[in-house]
TrEMBL record:
Designated name of the protein: Nitrogenase (Molybdenum-iron) beta chain
Domain Nitrogenase/oxidoreductase component: 52-478
Family the UniProt entry places it in: Belongs to the NifD/NifK/NifE/NifN family.
CDD domains registered for this protein in UniProt: Nitrogenase_MoFe_beta_like (cd01965)
Ranges that cross the membrane: none
InterPro entries linked to this entry: ChlB/BchB/BchZ (IPR050152), Nase/OxRdtase_comp1 (IPR000510), Nase_comp1_CS (IPR000318)
Keywords, ordered alphabetically: Nitrogen fixation
Source domain of life: Bacteria
A GO MF label: nitrogenase activity
Keyword Repressor: no
Length: 490
């Protein structure tokens, strides 16, 4: 496994040359007063920067062709997820629910699962059903595997054995009290590969990628890079043409499935892959590691390819594994990003930035802002992650900064710090809007979830072209803001 790349395979300006000598301005951390109990010591979480575990498993499932999540829980566990998908993507998202009521809470959800799965198979003819558990079914102790076996037996009796060939099942246990949406996605990656992948003994040259919570625009940017390199690739949980596509055949075509998504056969052939890459260590890393352990496929768990260094690392690794060189067209894109960084350095340089996001987004954004000459001050990682905290420390040591990392904390604590030590810019998701307005600091939206910007999901932030767009957003936010006279800019 390659964890660090010291040299860039691309001609031109090397990564080391990007380093800018400057005096670090990160302030010494002023501890909060005793009456502000830190999140880690509180019984409650105030303004969490994360959502519930089943959400991540549902996100992953919706990136699979003709797949439907079946949520073994109450309707609310599904309704708010569908609402969030609609807010982010403004697309229909088919999610089925076992619709627990009082009787299920007392007697368990066996009947609900058996009837629900049968209805789904009859009416929607999905190629895959992912049974996603919730807090209630986990607390009740529903034995999902035995319920599913019973449902399959009954369907075989009623419809014949072919029905089981047509629909695959994956069970993802997602008790939300044990983790966030990040862990839900991670578990889904693990369970999908465990349930579906096979080794045929005929190795392929194909590279597999698990993207995590990247947006459709990001996935298209990754495809653009891999196509320029001429590698044979598969993106697992590919939401680019399921959660962002024209409504082909609507409304007459029932059941309606969008044209895209990873095919079940692609999961099956993953056991023969040449390598698998997890582009979000905390959201998908478990799947890559499992495939490596079980089928001896080389696994690479890399930082999210945001900014110059992380994109270099991804492309260099892909180039080494596939034997394909990095073409001139990609070097050109890299050159344009570097040019844009040089053109705007006087706006970004020494600007103090607070970051809020999921572990992989927060770690990658920290490197990118350091590359831009900005100073990270308070970094809130909404889902606790030791690997993200390590990565952030590694980056900040490289650039000689000492930010405060609030690992697994909540926005209440982060907000307190920001009110006492105002940054110049905030990088964060849509739930940071109120803090940004209150302390009058511009917010650059990125990561998950962004639901109050039209078109965000189509604008990439990964790769060199994505980096250029992300940079433009940061600089335009700075240009739009009225800073005090001592921090003016032209
Ligand atoms: S936290 Fe638990 S009960 Fe609430 S929506 Fe998520 S799974 Fe359902």
């Amino acid at each position: 496994m390659i964890n660090h790349v010291s040299e860039i395979p691309i001609e031109g300006i090397t990564y080391k040359q990007l380093r800018i000598e400057k005096k670090p301005l990160t302030p010494e951390y002023v501890p909060p007063p005793p009456e502000l109990v830190p999140a880690a010591k509180r019984a409650v979480c105030i303004d969490p920067s994360r959502t519930c575990m089943p959400f991540g498993a549902m996100w992953a499932t919706l990136g699979v062709h003709r797949a439907i999540p079946f949520v073994q829980g109450a309707q609310g566990c599904t309704t708010y997820v569908r609402y969030t998908f609609s807010r982010i993507f403004r697309e229909p998202a088919s999610i089925a629910t076992a619709s627990f009521h009082e009787d299920a809470a007392v007697f368990g959800g066996r009947k609900n699962l058996i009837r629900g799965v049968r209805n789904l198979v009859c009416r929607y003819k999905p190629e895959l059903i992912a049974i996603v558990t919730t807090c209630s079914s986990e607390v009740i102790g529903d034995d999902i595997q035995s319920f599913l076996a019973e449902a399959q037996d009954l369907m075989e009796e009623e419809f014949g054995p072919e029905v089981l060939d047509l629909t695959k099942f994956v069970v993802v246990n997602t008790p939300s009290f044990a983790g966030s949406h990040v862990e839900g996605y991670n578990r889904a990656a693990h369970e999908f590969l465990k349930a579906l992948s096979r080794k045929s003994g005929q190795p392929s040259e194909d590279l597999y990628f698990i993207p995590g919570f990247l947006m459709p625009g990001d996935l298209r940017e990754l495809k653009h890079l891999f196509e320029l390199m001429g590698v044979s690739y598969h993106i697992l949980f590919d939401i680019s043409d399921t959660l962002d596509c024209p409504l082909v055949g609507m409304p007459n075509k029932i059941p309606y499935y969008p044209p895209g998504g990873t095919r079940v056969e692609e999961f099956v052939r993953a056991g023969d892959a040449k390598a698998i890459f997890a582009l979000s260590p905390d959201a998908g890393g478990a799947g890559a590691k499992w495939l490596s352990r079980r089928h001896k496929v080389s696994a690479f768990v890399l930082p999210m390819p945001i900014g110059v260094g992380n994109t270099d690392e991804l492309l260099k690794t892909v180039s080494e594994v596939s034997g394909r060189p990095i073409p001139e067209a990609i070097r050109w894109e890299r050159g344009i990003l570097l040019d844009a960084m040089a053109d705007t350095l006087h706006y970004t340089m020494m600007k103090r930035v607070a970051i809020c996001g999921d572990p992989d987004f927060a770690a990658a954004a920290t490197r990118f802002v350091c590359e831009l000459g900005m100073i990270p001050t308070y970094i809130l990682v909404g889902t606790k992650s030791s690997s993200a905290a390590e990565e952030i420390w590694k980056v900040c040591e490289e650039y000689n900064y000492k930010p405060v990392i609030m690992n697994g904390s909540d926005q209440f604590e982060w907000e307190y710090a920001l009110k006492n030590d105002k940054p110049d810019v905030i990088l964060g998701h849509s739930r940071c809007v109120n803090i940004s307005k209150e302390i009058r600091v511009p917010l650059v939206r990125f990561g998950f979830p962004v639901y109050d910007r039209i078109g965000y999901q189509r604008e990439p932030i990964v790769g060199y072209r994505g980096g250029e767009r992300f940079l433009a957003r940061i600089v335009n936010a700075i240009l739009d803001h009225h800073y005090p006279d001592d921090r003016t800019h032209q």
